[in-house]
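Recall that a protein's primary structure is simply its ordered list of amino acids. Everything else, from secondary elements to tertiary packing, is in principle encoded there. The following example makes that idea concrete.
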Amino acid sequence: MVVLTSNNYRDMSDALKRRCIHLYIDYPEPELEKRIIRLKLPGIDEALADRLVCAVNHIRELDMKKRPCISETLDWAQALMVLNIDELSCQWLNPEPEAFWGTGDSEMHTYKAHCHEVRTCQNLNQLIDFIEELVL
């Protein structure tokens, strides 16, 4: 018996699909995902794990080709721990001019209410400076 896993990111050939039994396994409930995170990363702050699982579940609701799996949640959690980040906050890097933010065509119009801080980066150097501020 061979078990193939798929996150629907790569297409399988029709010939392969005809020879397989398909079983869909949904993402875990938030409480189970938190238990998995605490099991795999025992030193993680409880509040960070809660916020992280909440954020990942919101991301999974977006219309995207590949939604984050548990492995991405664990990678993100581990990266936050390595960087000594114990709180999630939304920081938006926006290339649009500020005068454009209030219009219905602006991405900022949609997301500004969810952000704690908004900065406009006009060039790569400003973006790099901002990223360094976040991680240092």
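DSSP finds six helices and two strands in the chain. The CA atoms of residues 55 and 88 lie 9 Å apart.
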